Model the fold of this input.
Amino acid sequence: GAVVSQHPSWVICKSGTSVKIECRSLDFQATTMFWYRQFPKQSLMLMATSNEGSKATYEQGVEKDKFLINHASLTLSTLTVTSAHPEDSSFYICSARDYRNLADTQYFGPGTRLTVL
Amino acid sequence: RKEVEQDPGPFNVPEGATVAFNCTYSNSASQSFFWYRQDCRKEPKLLMSVYSSGNEDGRFTAQLNRASQYISLLIRDSKLSDSATYLCVVAWGAGNNRKLIWGLGTSLAVNP
Done:
């Protein structure tokens, strides 16, 4: 149980294009999903917290107009990197919290490796 | 001071060795503590939660020292498969302000 999928697992795109990453909870409902970014040899950095049916909460320094988050259902959140540039190349990971579980356990997706040329 | 600090290592140990990692946190109001494991180019996976009384899971023992604001992870009888980065995670806040703060991780390499 508690499986989270991400799609795509990797993507290479040209500078200036937009990329959409999907995060799905497969066997549970997630009222809250989290989007992280991890650069090589660095820690996970929380980008935003996505609550179903409401606007995402962005961390300081993360541009909400560049990283669009939509959490339209209890099993799906999407992150769109708009007008991607080489500095956006990173490992993007989502996680989901089971709405029945009030603890802090988060279930992670396998990540999406984005390379912007 | 960083909110969560870990020695990045790398720790190079032979198979069978015992190795310990420490992690310090700055917020005395922190409520929950975890160790995650992350393999290269993979997502983190929960290794164990850390409780005030300390807890053990097989070869892994986690302890919490609230007074000194640190948590530890002890790995006994290291296996080659234990090679990974170990991430310390601390949670504080409530409701929508609940935050998980991640350490940079400690790299472990177990050698044959």
Remarks:
- Chain A touches chain B at residues 34, 42-46, 49, 51, 57, 91, 93, 103-106, 108-111, 113 (CB under 8 Å).
- DSSP finds no helices and eleven strands in chain A.
